[in-house]
């Protein structure tokens, strides 16, 4: 209702502003019995964290996660997992000129118009910094799925920055190459060109847009409810929640307008297991809003970061004067490279949520039937020692 | 949760399958005191109904709405508005070949894989026929907004079919021309070309994709919650709920990837009323997920209808055999022309819901303060006479 | 949000006023593959319907249910079940005196104060007539549970009217005797006294309060989430939603204040199957808000019907005058006898909802795994024939 | 859905177990512009905290709240308020005997049966310690209401322990006397007897049940939606969420069964402001599920604490043996005295939530209209300094 939570059975609620003292997330509805590896969560946070390369903000945040609840001897207990990530390197001073003079195309004005006030340091709640919480939640969802009977794989990479576009790559190439370069493009040569282009804009005090291709494999067929809780509906909501997203597509996306029914339609044949399978996957893994078992794939676009050192004009609603501004903080020149782990996190969360809702994974506990306590259970130590 | 409802304060829940005896929708959370014009609802249903032109299915549905509750003397009472639309011209016989042999790229297989069974006549619940309910709900939302203190206007038109694309049109042109032609394109010359193209595919026994441009004017600034209930999040969910949608964009959409921050950013100036306004609207009326007060606009794409007379191949899971099929029912050769009123309905609902949530429109009653009964109130007659 | 729906996975949304043309309910989230017996639904409606005895209103409603969707060949399809019950015997004339002069202790004034207006015939939306929808939804839930692998039984009876209180009865006595008498008390001698007492008040133009004892057997252990979605939380909400409920208790209820921990606590022993079971059931089947597997039982109280022929005083907010009123419609002299099927319905719905949420019953389909279409499936006829 | 959150517009989500390292709560949907006094929150936590008297557990928790987000210069910003309360004095050792041998009538077994495992130190998530989060959320709601245009007052006191029952007291007496004594009974002489009774049971190694009377004044009329979101429905859910609650009543409660309609009904008269008011308040401030503007009052019962030093019997599911146990931790001998602030907190939250939903208090900001930024706004310092 208030926009600070996502998910139905697997839910998370977040708090925190860019320059507050801590970011936090409560993961509610994680099944019990999952061995939760804190380092794996940390590894995902590290992929998103600032300062990891020259094309990310130089803000020095270690982004260390602390887990406060929901575990017994390293296993989830089915009760909420509270996590905190402290903010260590907030420098709000540079934002003082913008308190009553909104930065161009940022959320400054709309937040003030909605709430009458805002936490203005670093963009406050509107900052993409807040997605650190989402990545933590996604890393929990990922571990649940990895320990389930299903073999779901999710990967995203940057397929376009400015006018530099990557050729189609395989899922395996995505797994292999995405993390090799700073722009997170799975096509190494393109990655280099993207990097050069980004550097160029950064040097000019400007920024540039881009897009991400994502794919989920191994998602079983039959997930997604008709209509308003269809898989695409949830996916659309998830992706558009990421700050600065301006488009979401799946399957043929915008190109579908140019395809005829006959060319796009896919015949059915019997697969290896004797079940019907579609010949091809132009449908992007989704028919009638429900998964077919084929890979789910799509794209999303992010506009260029609005925080740029180039001179721009704004107005100060307190003084009533126009003024020139330069947003000289520590900012990313392009969003998709750091959005890759966020996109993946939202996919993990979305897929798991649908799996739980379909009873594919027991919502109460990963293993065993509800009602069966564990007779072998003998933890070595209480949680708090 | 189950996908059959949409909205938070202004909600609607639907039932009905393509070939069931009736479609139905319950609108819950409509403020009291709205003069509800049944004819206006009917007019919207007529825009969506089958058989309205040569490029829509010839199924003969009058789509007459009956209202069962929620009114007193023609005014809403704040209690749920139950509406029914009877199905009069369902002919399920033609669907018998597909009971155990899924139509290519339709929802037949996924519904059966999810539920083990399905209502197979006319595509059952997966049919776009079900959006008749949404249009009824949208027509209620529209009347609430029209009778409110706000001057919200919403309009959509078909801006692309196949490779025929309309040039940019003004909102006024949309209002004037959209309903003049069967394809619902606001640019008359393009409309003619679209119509020709559609006819051509229809003659070949094929179908074609297309897209819709939509715009909402007069939506006040400050609507939309941060993060997961941002305006784009709700918009994305709403649009992707419409069957066969493959992309949703707002503002610059996919093109945003090629714009630099400096070129896309918009300076602030003081508007006529002395308040800051952005210079331009490349942001599509949304900054930080919240409305700026500028027009909200975007696009969505629909793939070609999957029901085509051209021969295709499928498999029958009962007999274990391949077979050739022709989907020879009564089908639209292109979706966007009839999707225009559905898109508009989802926008009316979404905007109203945000207005109620922000307390912009009193959630309990359109006029007056909660707690004040109407001392002049003297209805001439009870509801049921 | 708006109070017109209940449930999470198994949900229902309702519409309709006492004197509107129809009542309606949409059941969303019913698993597919349930053989739905319309007569069983009707039988439950008949238990609740007016005019069934001398101590119920003489309003002549057949309360015939029509099902519009959600079925294929008599089996549920997992898509929403739309049901309508027409109102046939509404006579609003007698309510005209109360349009601007609220009946004592009724919802007339509060509805008008909230919404500024109201549907005033027969109490409109505030009328207990609306619970006909709940009973229809409950009858669906009951059939799902009856066809599941679980052996859940639910029964309620009237255990108190005025100062006449029934002794404790067994579940078997409830099953056997409750429906034998008009007051629905499972203790025949007490039933007679209750009946006499009720007649006496009815003759005086007055009414009387009462309470219901309810019990659910066979609910497996482990249901109910911690805290705000505990089983008692859901139960409390369900029961207090029934009009005129003034108390809800489970287990020892209000008496628990006088029990010591040692006397109330129940030791654990090993049951027949080797699992721990509590010795006794003073806990009412619920510990830590979660089911223990023991019968869940409790009580709820209904105040006396507010509509009485005895003279009372009210004020007319239009004329500004006091006036004497007699509510001379067709009214029940006591609520619990007709509330019994409503209480049972809310229990069926609540238990099923928890079963689905725990993955105990597959939320998508009663039989088989999601993803497995039915290879033997060959319906004889389409839904609409 | 998962039971870890409460509220619709004013929501809170919690995490934390009795012996985890911290408890935490995220308050989402608090309007902007509220001056949030941390000390007032602390004061409420102090009323609930352990070790405050001889009849509460001697666990030494300072229960100091830290606020991590949602503020700018001491005022709320409309974004989520994240709060943490560290656990300082958890001693899990004493719980080791119960890891596989459930304590009688506790949540040990049901949690294990639901989740297969549990956080067993101090009762983990099932511990009433978790209500510290609720009190923090309630203290925020209280401050919103206190700074609004409404004059809502909420108070509760212990009206019964064992067989010692307080006579009726006025709201003023509740305000004056409740906090004067350890048992939190507003009737001093009764308080003394309650204290003696409690001491007696504590000395015997036993515990005792009790009940709380609560009242809310100044709640405006017209709040509460029909049916499933009626005021009593929300109240019932709120109260039954508090651990160990076995009954909830409002107005005449269980006694309503013995009242006739004529005796319970209340005539209408014109009040001082010329509006209809009921003569009397046997209806407990609620008619048709909606507030009348009269005080809302009711009672709830808590069973005796289940943790008692007296010897009891349990079974160990690992060893398969019966064993005698004594729960010798630090426990309250009676629950209501410390439940008083929890009851009040749930009332503050519930009332505020209804006020926001009715648009009575602007959901986005306490002062001013949405869309109006604050031209005078000039904070002295960023949030994080």
Automatic annotation (TrEMBL), chains A, B, C, D:
PROSITE patterns: CHORISMATE_SYNTHASE_1, CHORISMATE_SYNTHASE_2, CHORISMATE_SYNTHASE_3. GO terms for biological process: amino acid biosynthetic process; aromatic amino acid family biosynthetic process; chorismate biosynthetic process. Keywords: Amino-acid biosynthesis, Aromatic amino acid biosynthesis, FAD, Flavoprotein, FMN, Lyase, NADP. Pathway: Metabolic intermediate biosynthesis; chorismate biosynthesis; chorismate from D-erythrose 4-phosphate and phosphoenolpyruvate: step 7/7. Residues 46-78 are annotated as: Disordered. The keyword Iron-sulfur does not apply. Its EC number is 4.2.3.5. Its cofactor is FMNH2. Signal peptide: none annotated. This reaction introduces a second double bond into the aromatic ring system. NCBIfam families: aroC, PRK05382.1. HAMAP family: Chorismate_synth (MF_00300). This is Chorismate synthase.
